[in-house]
């Protein structure tokens, strides 16, 4: 509480940026508290920062909703569930994956265009298949799980590919 009380006035005066990538690790995962921050003072800090204009910005990348920030006037929430096809193929290329534009597109689509799945797929292709996009044919099959999101399913499938490839 003391830290929040000291930080907020300072942050109202200074230029700053805070990035909390993967914020879901500090959020409640289920129930009535879904999306709320486990540490109440972190939640309070973010709510205070979203309560009036500030010379800085907070960027959060959680999988869970942000219910206490959704109603704050100075908070903007965007859902970025998947990449567009061009961004996904460029991510694969930046990881060293090669192939025709159509092969890169098929690889990106095999990862569901989800950023983490595309990154994992690109890493797997680069390290174990000379970066060849057409090697997505070596991805294992994985039964659909009704309890998993599309992103979780794609990531699990690629992690299974890593598991099967590694000793």
Task: Outline the structure in words.
By secondary structure, this protein is mainly alpha-helical. The chain contains 7 helices and 2 strands. The protein has helices at 2-13, 40-49, 67-70, 85-94, 101-110, 115-128, 150-165, and strands spanning 16-21, 56-61. The chain has a two-stranded parallel sheet with strand order 1-2. Strand 1 (16-21), helix 2 and strand 2 form a beta-alpha-beta unit. The longest helix is centred in the last third of the chain and has 16 residues, at 150-165.
Radius of gyration: 20 Å
What coarse outline follows from CA principal-axis ratios? elongated
Strand content: 5-15%
Give the SSE order as H and E letters: HEHEHHHHH
Please state how the strands of the largest beta sheet are arranged side by side.
1-2
**Main sheet attributes: strand count, strand direction, barrel closure:** 2 strands, parallel
Task: Give the N-to-C terminal Cα separation.
Answer: 49 Å
* DSSP E strands, number: 2
Structural class: mainly alpha
Number of separate helices: 7
Proportion of residues in helical segments? 40-55%
Low-confidence stretches: none
Mean pLDDT reading: 92
